[in-house]
Design goal:
The protein starts with a strand and ends in a 14-residue tail after the last strand. Helix content is about 15%, strand content about 45%. A hairpin with a 2-residue loop joins strand 4 (about 55-60) and strand 5. It has one domain: Sandwich (Hypothetical Protein Aq_1857, Chain: A), CATH 2.60.300. The chain has about 120 residues and is an alpha+beta fold. The chain is built from two helices and nine strands, in the order E-H-E-E-E-E-H-E-E-E-E. A six-stranded mixed β-sheet has the order 4-5-2-3-9-8. It has a three-stranded mixed β-sheet with strand order 1-6-7. The longest helix is centred in the N-terminal third of the chain and has 13 residues, at about 5-20.
């Protein structure tokens, strides 16, 4: 599978889906230009059908939608749920990232341009 979910991420996603009454939704993950390292991640619960060009993965009953353009930056990535001083949240571990911001929501891959963190996320 091109993108995996940790056991903790699956548990947290199930709880989130129940609390938002979206038990049949998928986790949509995307990459967008921007962020202090050049590219940034986005995630949302998506209760619609996959769009044309989406790659659909399923793990432990959780569906994941990733568009083709985003997937090329994320192959081999893992979604985890972590608790830290800022609170809890989902984090993507991306083996394709050559650098990332301290917040973990912005990254740079080989061949992509980024400005460097510059303290944009408090790091």
């Amino acid at each position: 599978m091109a993108i995996t979910l940790t056991e903790r991420a699956v548990c947290e996603l199930r709880e989130l889906m129940v609390s938002q009454q979206k038990t049949s939704a998928a986790l949509r993950i995307w990459v967008a230009g921007g962020g202090c390292s050049g590219l940034s991640y986005g995630m949302a619960l998506d209760d619609s059908e996959p769009e044309d060009g989406d790659n659909v993965f399923e793990q432990d009953g959780i569906k994941v939608y990733v568009d083709g353009l985003s997937l090329q930056y994320m192959v081999g990535s893992s979604v985890d749920y972590v608790d830290d001083m800022m609170g809890g949240g989902f984090k993507i571990e991306n083996p394709n990232a050559v650098s990332s911001c301290g917040c973990g929501s912005s990254f740079k891959t080989e061949g992509s341009e980024g400005a460097g963190c510059g303290g944009c996320c408090g790091s």
